[in-house]
## 1
Amino acid sequence: MIRSWLLPALLTLAGLLVAGGRAADGDVVTGLVLLVFFLLLAAAGSPLVFPRSVGAAEALRRGASDGRPVVYWRPGCAFCVRLRFRLGRRARRAHWVNIRRDPEGAAAVRAANGGDETVPTVLLAGRHHTNPDPAWLRDRIDGLGEDAGPPR
């Protein structure tokens, strides 16, 4: 749990230090803008922007019953954040597994990626897709483009 909040905490601290330095130099507006920027980065790298994570076993069970994708992710991963934001509200229609909290999920990612913990890794229809194009996954979640082929 602490590890997933380390990056956001460091970004917040850096923002406070930079903003404080600017404010001390008399440039309060720039300091506030930089503080907001660092806080947005911290929020994007935090577990807060992702739907509630479930364990790998539960995600696999749910995915098998409802056909929704299982997305393995890790806090602080820029590609995971990109996927999450590009999916928008559709992200709630996937089952998210935080591999930092779930050793079984991390093992599944390593098995799918030749020993590497490369995320995001998406399990959809029994196949793993490493760092899929968000538009491709959006189409799958929407039930469109069934014959569109593998992700780019």
## 2
Amino acid sequence: MLTAIVLIDTAPDRIPEVATQVTDLAGVSEVYSVTGKADLVAMVRVREHDALADVIADGISKVPGVLRTETLIAFRAYSKVDLEQAFALGLSD
């Protein structure tokens, strides 16, 4: 599984609409509105490298109101939460 973090700059009056449309794209698992240099952050998870272009260049970038994107490709995940959930599979509290 490949994970990409996509920083999205939008037209200020289109943030909610862009977020909704990006969330509906196949391969996008979450979209967050954020403070800072980007308006939105999308988490993209795909099985093959070529699918990143389908989701980002042919999907996110073409949503009306998207001005530009910056994509960060994840190498490794260091998440205590994910590890705890993986080890707890099938166990009841």
## 3
Amino acid sequence: MTNRTETFTDSKHFRLNQVAEGVYAAISVPGTGSVGNAAIIDLGDSTLVVDTFTTIEAAEDLQAAAIELTGKPVSYVINTHWHSDHTSGNQVFIPGAQIISTSITREIMATFGKDRLARHLADPEPIYRAMDELDEKIQQETDEKLKREMQWENASDSEYMNMLPNLVYTLPTITFDGQMTIHGSSRTVQLITYGGGHTQSDAFLYLPEEKIAVMGDLVLSKHHPVMMYANPNAWLNILERVEALGVETIIPGHGEVCSMKELHEVKGYINDIVALVAEAVHSKKSIDDLVVPQAYQDWYFTTYFKSNLKRVYDWITESPGSTPFNREKE
């Protein structure tokens, strides 16, 4: 395999990792304008990008890398889900590229996403206040790992706010439900959705010949899964269906390129969080007293642990019986 990543001048926002011939992972550098990972796929006669980062500058670097690595402009952009660290750079790739997502993802972006951006533009002060409050917590934090993560979070938020006045919220131009196939001259890729687990609708890209999957935030490597909009049972069901595809290599939404081992770890995390909260509910204990299990203490996105507990608590109490042992009911 000829490694072409050396041909691209490094971006401060990501590191390139050649996963296979013509398949590249753009791994986010913490504390920059990327936040999430992206991918570049050479289809032979065209180029495809998966997800577009949080800021315009990061997306511009991604576009430059794609052109330099493949020798062609980007023709397709996939948004795996609606979160801003996977979609805010969309504007960089039009009008040359078609932007593709699930129907539900586009609907959420066209409503909630656009409304949220309008609020940010009309009144950015709440975000600046939150950043100031986090900065105060950083000064007091004694856990060096958590302190570093909080610093990264504020640095990324700062890049987002600096870019905000120039952001043109750009919606997908093509939508699909179920599965969509793109045939290039040298490879075929499958866009697949099994519904929503991490968000209300999650898609991933599968390269059947190479057995590589670009999973968006359905799989994170050594990061706490983000469960703010999650349905734990649906997420577990999706991951079980991905297992059946025979995937060998995963480009995750966050963290390093990994394998099915990390997918299994995400399944374990979701089951563990649900079990922890279910036990607390059963014992009438406060979820505020729950601490990060030993297995996940070295994972990043530590600040999401508490919000994950709250989301699972709401899910359990709103839908009694919704545990991993009752998945067939959903």
## 4
Amino acid sequence: MDLELVDISEEQIEVLSKVFKGISDPTRLKILKILWDSPKYSYEIESMFDCERSNISKHLRVMLKLGILNVKREGNKSLYSVRMSCIPRVIGCLIPYINDPKYPEIDKN
């Protein structure tokens, strides 16, 4: 049974807000896209970005802390996967709306 929005507690609203903030960063959305279909090692994720490894590590830590991702340690390697399997569905259901020509233009600045 689907939860009605009116049934969501104030505490749940606070946590949801943090999760949405956690996926709102463009780099984090790109990480989710990379992990969408299959788990990846941290070095694989880092190699897909043109920035410092520490920057990607920070984003991974944020998403781990929020429970968005899982990590499995294998010796000195870390294998990341999407824990909140609903997030790709949430993002997927929004794509048709933002692709609609009538969708409001968003300031890109």
